[in-house]
Amino acid sequence: MLKKEIPVIWLQGAGCTGCSISVLNAVSPKIKNLLLDETVPGKRLSLRFHATIMAGQGEPVIEVLSDTQKQQKGKYVLVVEGAVPTAKKGIYASVGKKGKKHLTILDTVVELGKDALLTIALGTCAAYGGIPAAHPNPTKCKGVKDVFIENKVNTPVINIPGCSAHPDWFIGTIAAILLERTLELDDVLRPKLFFGKLVHENCPRRADFDKGKFAKSPGEEGCLYLVGCKGHYTYADCPLRQWNSGLNWCVKAGSPCMGCVEPGFPDSTSPLYEKIKPEDIEKCISTNTRP
Amino acid sequence: MHKYKYTTIDPITRIEGHLGIEVLIDNGIAKEAHASGTLFRGFEIILQGRDPRDASRLTQRVCGVCPTAHATASALCLDDAFGITDKIPENANFIRSLIFGCNLLQSHILHFYHLAALDYVDATKATGEIHPFTPRYQGDYRLSEDINNQALKHYIMALDIRRKVHEMLTIFGGKMPHNVGIIAGGVTERPTEDKIANFLARLKEIIDFIDNIYIADVLAVARAYGDYFQIGKGCGNFLAYGGFATAGGKLFKSGITSDGQKADSFKQQNITEDVKHSWYRDESSGKNPKQGETKTHPEKETGYSFIKAPRYEGRVYELGPLARTVVSFAQDDGKTKKMLQPILSEFKVGVESLFSVLGRHAARALECKLISENMLQWLNGLEPDGPISCEYEIPQEAQGSGLSEAPRGSLGHWISIKDKKIQRYQIITPTAWNGSPKDDKDQSGPIEQAIIGTKIKDEKNPFEVVRIIRSFDPCLACAVHLINAKGKRLGEFEVV
User: Fold this and answer.
1) How many angstroms separate the CA atoms of A67 and B239, rounded?
2) Within this chain, do residues A208 and A141 fall inside the same structural domain, yes or no?
3) Active site includes A284?
4) Which domain holds residue A172?
5) Which backbone phi and psi does B142 adopt, to 5 degrees?
6) Which of residues 304-343 of B touch A (CB under 8 A)?
């Protein structure tokens, strides 16, 4: 059977490659299946550009970008990992060189974003700016949606935050796209399927919180509220899904949730090992209104 | 008139982060090379004014491939600043080493199979002409059909193995990328009996892969590409800070050597960072990282990279698995000599032939064997009932440094604390050394030196250049490509 291919362009901006590495940790399907096999019945991805994985280098791979844009207009998915530096017209991050000209991430995201079927902002940096956008934001990093708004790009954006993002969140979103399903998003554009409930709601240490049994330092038994857990205002399914094939996750390992999927991470969730303040929650609710 | 040809390869893919290389080729020989990258997302600026404890979480985000290296260097740095280095419980030291060891194995396996291998293995023979295996360089793929097919099977198998190493890490690290287990004062996960058993079962599978597949594949590549023992020598000076505490001292010895026969001791006060050819203000040149500053100047005419140029006693040094191996070898470490012997005798080469593209790949594979075997001992040292952290107070004012051995080489973090907040934080990554531009004395960096003088057989498909670059496993994730504001060409060479 002839498989339908969805072309994917994956750009890396001001990030750490951690979200790519996280996707390599996917189990069902594995990364091999994602690259070579069908992801949903009859349909597969064609990963045309990914700087960490692809065989080629230099100008020939840069041509893949414009070729895909021209030949697959409105049909390809753009994945952005890392924030978009906007200071000095974007000179702080380039994709590579075309002739003598550097292609900035800023220009490339806008240009390829215009003609994409949709854009996935993978990881908190791409979604909201994340760590490179933390105070004082030296390179004026922004998330993809903000860049699209400023440059009048109307292509839909799905945010899959997380530092790093969980591979299941990415693959689930890709599967929905291939199945031509519309994912319901929250008001900061995260799929409710993965980001619909508070960490605190499903936390295995919730009973300790209710009983008033609190850890005094990370690694101790008890609720991690006093040592900085941000699970009270953080929306993610980590307690249920867990990480790395379901083996462990932050709170289970004795570490407070850092709120890494929230739009204000890391500034609004810092200091990471200090108890949350009431105004943090208010701040979070006001930027992040829920139904 | 003499004609030069300037070849630009940008982006260099299948590395961590982004790097551009410009090579000046004259009659088929690389005469000049400029490695252009950056270590600037502004991490050191972002860290100022924050709670010092957050450094071991935030600095991990410098690099998603070797985050635990930063978590470790940062925790050591904080332990030092808090005055608790001697109080870290044995359990915590072992668990830190186990977490970090996993990350090193993952990084090396990923590097050989998924970043470097496609320069030697023709993937399209199995997959056909599909993305992401095309486009690519054409020509110099030398493996026999059988070995090529086997290598491709192992490419796929290694995807599973590296995932499993991350899973093993998660047992004590909580999650990956970006573990939560390593903190100032110790670790957060208790070494319960079930976790020890779980870890051991996984470790044995990984050891089997390293011993029987990874090392064998590196040898198979070496047999087909033997000339790469002579290509990509580089500066020939090697440095290691030392790392991985074990019962008998550090597993990776600390020291410097220039010939692999005699080593001198390493002193961190001899490190300086030059910025003549980096996009930083000149007044910050030549400083020790304790006094280091990060003041950008992207319009600087003499600059061509956002990587500074770290030097030791003013000289250029290579860091990384090869440097660690050579430094240990030079200190008459019986284990290292034994480890290298099979390779040296099979290929009938001396230790100096390891100063090469193939030597770097071999050192990486053999180091995995060394680390994985030591992980068995560290696991054996865990006490389920023992403490995993110590108490401390954040000091009003303090300084600290944390030196360790990351997958790609020696990594240093330096902190100054004032009013219980981070006043200054400096990081020197191994790729800052290896991928550095020229220094104040115009000495080229290690990768640049490894390219200069190389014969390029096919200028349209300069395999030699990319094989040399990737043999260093450069990691510029921290460095996300800053570029010259004016897009100015480098140097005054005539471009054809």
Assistant:
1) 45
2) no
3) no
4) 4-192
5) -110, -5
6) none
Q: Tell me the residues of chain A between 154 and 213 that have a Cβ less than 8 Å away from chain B.
A: 163-164
Contact B152, B121 (CB under 8 A): yes
pLDDT in tens, B218-244: 999 999 999 999 999 999 999 999 999
Nearest to B298 among A46, A91, A244 (CB): A91
User: pLDDT tens, B390-406?
Assistant: 999 999 999 999 999 99
Number of domains in chain A: 2
Distance of CA A57 to the CA centre of its chain: 25
Which H or E run contains A195?
Answer: helix A192-195
Q: Does residue A163 carry a catalytic annotation?
A: yes
Considering the four listed CATH numbers 1.10.645.10, 3.40.50.1260, 3.30.465.10, 3.40.50.720, the one that applies to the domain covering B5-479 is 1.10.645.10
Q: What is the pLDDT of residue A166?
A: 98
- Look up the ipTM and state it: 0.94
Could you tell me the two tokens for A65?
A: 């970008």
Distances (CA, A) of A102 to B42, B47, B354: 21, 29, 36
Neighbours of B496 (CB within 10 A): 8
Task: For the beta carbon of residue A277, count every other beta carbon within 10 angstroms.
Answer: 9
Token duo for residue A87: 């200071």
Task: Provide DSSP, A173-188.
Answer: HHHHHHTTPPPPB-TT
pLDDT, position B38: 43
Given an 8 Å threshold on Cβ–Cβ distance, is A266 in contact with B133? no
Q: How far apart, in whole angstroms, are the C-alpha atoms of residue B118 and residue B132? A: 11
Given the residues A50, A166, A229, A232, select the one marked as catalytic: A229
- Asked if the C-beta of B490 comes within 8 angstroms of chain A's C-beta atoms, the answer is no
| B328-357: pLDDT as tens digits | 999 977 888 888 988 889 898 888 899 999
Smallest CA–CA distance from B482 into chain A, residue: A92
Would residue A200 show up in a list of annotated catalytic residues for this protein?
Answer: yes
Q: Same structural domain for residues A123 and A16?
A: yes
Residue B173 distance to chain A (closest CA, Å):
7
Q: If you count residue pairs, one on A and one on B, with CB atoms under 8 Å apart, how many are there?
A: 263
